[in-house]
């Protein structure tokens, strides 16, 4: 199972510009082949003879490279940055050093990702470096493809043929950012609980990148053929080293079937009145979509849109929102040229399949509403939660729709900074079952990452439960019906997010400093607000969000600037850590409406007074030069 040179140069310092598509039948075959060991033709003596390649550990001198600070979800930069000499190597070695030699020696590590450009070269480099640092085995999803939630599931659930369990994972993804030779690449490390490395570890990694003098790589270890399922064995200074290429769909599908009532969802999909569309935006979700929706649940292949994973995501932006998922939005009756007969239910995923967007016929469900509705309906609709929810949590910028559900159901509730690792701590302590964030991330304690396909199956489960008595006759309860029933019961949180992408980093920092300075005099702030809009309530309090973790006591400061109004409205300003260059300013605007006669207004219309106040208060155009956001959600 060894390929001579398919992964690029040995050091990975150059990168061609060939874009690869992964046809669905090659992504995860449903019947895995017989496992082979080290079948490289020039060394194989017979079908039953195993010949191990022997490698040595090579020490390579290096020096620090600036700017290797991991953001909320790892290190993300342009491909041209990652392909600089020693760039990836430095970061990987700094990660190994942060974890300590004792944790790496004899370990089992997962190395896979969303299949974006440069992934195949990076996987070969990390395999060689893991071997040199004393790892015992590497698990790789076939073709190097594993969704971020599937990696978490594999770390938590998979047991190797020899009884081994994973100790951690390198996930190669830049999530919802574009891919290709001139676009983004990313890498992050997940711990033995399947969740992202906590700040204590990522801070150590960054400190190590600033002092690194050397890295270690296996010399004489050939590139492994990651397109063929099986185990390749090698021999090194620490003994045997294995690379296990496996069908990653199986573990994830098995986990989903243990959570949801697939039979109930099958009945919904079989109902003649029901139709749906799933758009993978040419990300890694496509590798799972056919297996789950078509093979397991009986949906038509025509329900799947853009479900062939591509290294450049088909030239698109794999971010499941109303701006970038144009084809799905049009098909669901929401675009400028909408379909005349949209499906009942639609959903989209991002590049690494941890995010989701949920749509009904001509109807958009905000991520903040989505997590609240899942929490409100989970116990009745999803077998995994039949004994009750332990608690719920949301990120600070997410609307307070979940808070109202938690209060009504008497559930533990937590508000955390942006970043899934904060939810992971709560889950590991048994305090949280369902959580979400406004940036299209929803999940539960089945893994330690957000999970896009899980969210889609959760919505399908709610639809199946609400329609269990009218699948053969009568009108179906729709996505829109479910959302409006929720608003009637719990009230509506009008909510929008303005993203200003690739803003000059200096200008973005000045804007944030201006907003912090304003907080010292709320009297002046309220005077300014009344000068802009007299119909907007006064600010009751303002701060920079700070979080003390109830589990480990760690404190996270400067997590976003908040203006909290007397009527429950909120303005939140954050600099996002998920871009690869420049800065992204995110502005969140929220207004709560309890009066059920007023919950049917257009969101942008209802929020326009607050939007006007936010733009004037922040001097957005003055600082950024932008007269409009890049994306409005």
Automatic annotation (TrEMBL):
<dbReference type="Pfam" id="PF24947">
    <property type="entry name" value="PGM1_C_vert_fung"/>
</dbReference>
<comment type="subunit">
    <text>Monomer.</text>
</comment>
<feature type="domain" description="Alpha-D-phosphohexomutase alpha/beta/alpha">
    <location>
        <begin position="368"/>
        <end position="469"/>
    </location>
</feature>
<dbReference type="Pfam" id="PF02880">
    <property type="entry name" value="PGM_PMM_III"/>
</dbReference>
<dbReference type="InterPro" id="IPR005844">
    <property type="entry name" value="A-D-PHexomutase_a/b/a-I"/>
</dbReference>
<comment type="similarity">
    <text>Belongs to the phosphohexose mutase family.</text>
</comment>
<feature type="domain" description="Alpha-D-phosphohexomutase alpha/beta/alpha">
    <location>
        <begin position="68"/>
        <end position="215"/>
    </location>
</feature>
<keyword id="KW-0313">Glucose metabolism</keyword>
<dbReference type="InterPro" id="IPR005846">
    <property type="entry name" value="A-D-PHexomutase_a/b/a-III"/>
</dbReference>
<dbReference type="GO" id="GO:0005829">
    <property type="term" value="C:cytosol"/>
</dbReference>
<keyword id="KW-0413">Isomerase</keyword>
<dbReference type="InterPro" id="IPR005841">
    <property type="entry name" value="Alpha-D-phosphohexomutase_SF"/>
</dbReference>
<dbReference type="InterPro" id="IPR045244">
    <property type="entry name" value="PGM"/>
</dbReference>
<dbReference type="InterPro" id="IPR016066">
    <property type="entry name" value="A-D-PHexomutase_CS"/>
</dbReference>
<keyword id="KW-0597">Phosphoprotein</keyword>
<keyword id="KW-0460">Magnesium</keyword>
<keyword id="KW-0479">Metal-binding</keyword>
<dbReference type="InterPro" id="IPR005845">
    <property type="entry name" value="A-D-PHexomutase_a/b/a-II"/>
</dbReference>
<protein>
    <recommendedName>
        <fullName>phosphoglucomutase (alpha-D-glucose-1,6-bisphosphate-dependent)</fullName>
        <ecNumber>5.4.2.2</ecNumber>
    </recommendedName>
</protein>
<dbReference type="Pfam" id="PF02878">
    <property type="entry name" value="PGM_PMM_I"/>
</dbReference>
<dbReference type="Pfam" id="PF02879">
    <property type="entry name" value="PGM_PMM_II"/>
</dbReference>
<feature type="domain" description="Alpha-D-phosphohexomutase alpha/beta/alpha">
    <location>
        <begin position="251"/>
        <end position="359"/>
    </location>
</feature>
<dbReference type="InterPro" id="IPR036900">
    <property type="entry name" value="A-D-PHexomutase_C_sf"/>
</dbReference>
<dbReference type="GO" id="GO:0000287">
    <property type="term" value="F:magnesium ion binding"/>
</dbReference>
<dbReference type="InterPro" id="IPR016055">
    <property type="entry name" value="A-D-PHexomutase_a/b/a-I/II/III"/>
</dbReference>
<comment type="function">
    <text>Catalyzes the reversible isomerization of alpha-D-glucose 1-phosphate to alpha-D-glucose 6-phosphate. The mechanism proceeds via the intermediate compound alpha-D-glucose 1,6-bisphosphate. This enzyme participates in both the breakdown and synthesis of glucose.</text>
</comment>
<keyword id="KW-0119">Carbohydrate metabolism</keyword>
<dbReference type="GO" id="GO:0004614">
    <property type="term" value="F:phosphoglucomutase activity"/>
</dbReference>
<dbReference type="GO" id="GO:0006006">
    <property type="term" value="P:glucose metabolic process"/>
</dbReference>
